[in-house]
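Retro notes, item 3 of 5
We never archived the inputs for the thiamine diphosphate complex last cycle. Fixing that now. Sequence and ligand:
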Amino acid sequence: MNDIDIEKLQGIANQLRIHSIEETTAAGSGHPTSCCSAADVVAALFFGHMRYNPKDPRYYNNDRFVLSKGHAAPLLYAAWAETGLFPTSDLLKLRTLNSDLEGHPTPRLPFVDVATGSLGQGLSVAVGMALCARLDKLDYRTYVLMGDGEIAEGAVWEAASLAGINKLNNLVAIVDVNRLGQSEATAFGHHLDVYAKRFASFGWRVEEIDGHDMDEILEVLAAVGLGEQPLVILAKTLKGAGISFIQDKDGWHGKPLNKEEAARAIAELQPRAKTGTDVQIPAPSQLPAPNNTAPASYPPLTYKLGDSVATREAYGNGLLRIGTVDPRVVALDGDTKNSTYADKFFKKFPERSVECFIAEQNIVGVATGFGARGKAPFGSTFATFFTRAADQIRVAGISQANINLVGSHVGVSIGEDGPSQMALEDIALMRAIAGSKVLYPADAVAAEKLLEEMAKQKGIHFLRTSRPKTPVIYNNDEKFPFGGAKVLRQNAGDKVTVVGAGVTLYEALKAADTLKAEGIGITVIDAYSIKPLGADVIRAAAQKTNNTVVTVEDHYAEGGIGDAVAGELSVDGIKVHKLAVRELPHSGKPEELLAKYGIDAAAIVKKVKSL
Ligand SMILES: Cc1ncc(C[n+]2csc(CCOP(=O)(O)OP(=O)(O)O)c2C)c(N)n1
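Structure as it came back at the time:
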């Protein structure tokens, strides 16, 4: 594979440097020095090592490349332009409104699988892709380029650990150890031995090289895939390498060269620059395409009205049911699978299950990797612990990722475990994610039907499941489209529309019974789809109840269901009264807590009467 000559690759590296300088100078911003340090490694990967079809960046058996240090985007763009995918003249549109060559890579570009730029996330995604290659029996490898400053992020080590545990010898991480971060030198400078010990202790094979010595780079790449461990290449480099008056100097992070500096730098590099467009890139091997097609339908449900089933348990039942006929379903969990009930799937389909251990950021990243490879990943843990992966979820939004997150143990209704285990901010977080769908079933049928929709549709979906058992209230053939809401009680002359979801729906139904006995009618709506909200259904009901709505939710008031409803309906002159948890909760029995924090049937009755 490496019969390509060294001088040519060195020349391509310099051409990539020139492009990176020109792009960022034209844009007036960007990170040319972060590009220059990694240019030799990237030239070797793209023009002498990786196997891919440059005309079809999404081909299923192409080697994958994740630029975890996303601020080196100009280098990535330069490499693809030099493969001939698009004209090099386009590079000068970097960071402009009408070009997809954005400041940091996003999958608006066909050769970018996931957004990067929030440092420390690429390795998790790469682990997901490498696991997926193994599952699909494909021989593509996943390469991920990280900065040395970047690997201070804890999430990197969550991913490194899982890669070591799973012996991912189809995964190659390259750390561009250029000694400098943004505001100062990194903690360990050029001491590769520090990083070597860390990766080795996580079960990785470690190679240390001079990242500007093409012979060394190719030699180490030639040994990729040997053994049973993931490989990390620690490449000692200079930030700004190739620009004599800048390289290895502090104070040049994220600064474009001015026109004169750029001209000077390019004059230095040009005599040693070569194009990559004439390089024959090794083709990926021809292996059968993975089966990533959704089935036409899923097996039917078998609940009986009145059955008592927690929605978290229904999630476990549903995942197993749909996973049996849908080969795209992959389950991930963070050592909570006996609580989230993902264990039912894990037992039946171990090859499609990934125990991520207690590392929630990595669950989201690995799921994003699977999603980018065409799977329908379902990651589960207690809903509240997804909040610590807030940034991974946010970036999944930017990636327009296909991931399903299922959070159990929501709200004060979990009871005795107390506030650290209660998800009370999760709706707010998940609603705020670009393109997300937020779903909150009250019974087992709703949970499983929403699960089907999550598997079928693309995007970021969050399913909020509850700990207490609740009675089945829907028939097995009921439909739960995203953006819908169910009217469960409604009579002419109703005073108020009460919107509940999950456990509070049952409180609303109880309140309706109590009030009815006193001659007061209320409309009760199940807002099982919080984003998109079934606003039309709620609005129509509210207009029949004096434009008055009461929302009741097992979540903090900020950003929850009440805010979602008010946000949609207040413009129509509808008054929304919010019952929600408004103080730091305590341990106790679920029913005691619902009462104490004012979200039980009695609180609803009181509120309705006061209006
Ligand atoms: C999570 C996160 N924190 C901070 C930043 C801001 N930032 C961008 S690049 C950078 C320095 C990165 O240093 P290093 O990983 O060594 O990469 P280099 O540019 O030196 O190759 C920082 C702090 C970021 N993008 N993401």
